[in-house]
Model the fold of this input.
Amino acid sequence: MKKVILAFAILLGLTSGINAQITVQHDTVGATYYGSALNIHNPISTTSATPVVVRWSVTNHNLPADWMTFDLGICDNQLCYGSNIFNGSTTQIDTAKNNKPIDLKLAINPGATNGSFFVSVNIRDGVSTNKNVVFIINKWPTGVSTISKVEDDVTLYPNPANDNVNIVFDGGLNVKNVMVYNLIGKPVKVFKVSGNSAKLDINDVPSGIYFVRLINAQGQIVATRKFTHY
Done:
C-alpha cells in the first residue's frame, strides 16, 4: 500500500511539472527614447512551486547598425547579454518559480538613427508555452514639432512586411477601424479593432507600397503609417 501511495505521489509531482506554464506579462511592450538609457521590462512568472526552465532567444529585429555599437543587451535574472545576443544563434536559459519571476528586460541606449524599431523574442518552457513577444523602441528627432505625443505612440512592424503587419497605438486614440490604402488612395483592406493593437492579414494584397490609416469612433483619421509589402 505504501508503495502505491509513493508511486501516486511521484506521478502527481511529474504531472504538476508537466502542466506547469509560464506567463509573460505583455505580448508587446515599448518605450520612447528621450535622452536617457532605456530599460524596457517584461517579467515572466509561473505559479509552479518547483522551478520551471525557461528558454528565450531573439528571433527578429530591425535595429539600425549604429544602435548595435551602443549600450545594448537583454537581461534576465542571471546575466545581461550584449549585442551578440541579437545574431539569432544563441538561446539563454533561466528558471522561474512561484514568487520569483524572471525580470526579462531590454536595456538600450540608442544610436543616432531615428525611427521606430522592434526586437522579437521567443520565450518557451518546453512544455506548454511557446510565444513571441515584442519590444518596441521609438526615437524621434529632438525639437521636431510636427510629431505629436500621440503620433509617437503609433508603431508599425515589421516593415517591409510579408503576410502580416502589426500595429500598436495609444489606447487614448479610441481607434475602431484600420484601413489599408494603396498609393493612389484606393482602400484595399478594412479591419475592425479593439484594444490598442491589431494584426493585419495582408497575405492577399499585391506587393507594393501602402498606407495604414487609423480611424476613431467619430470617423476621423488619427494617424497614418506607410509600409512596403513584398
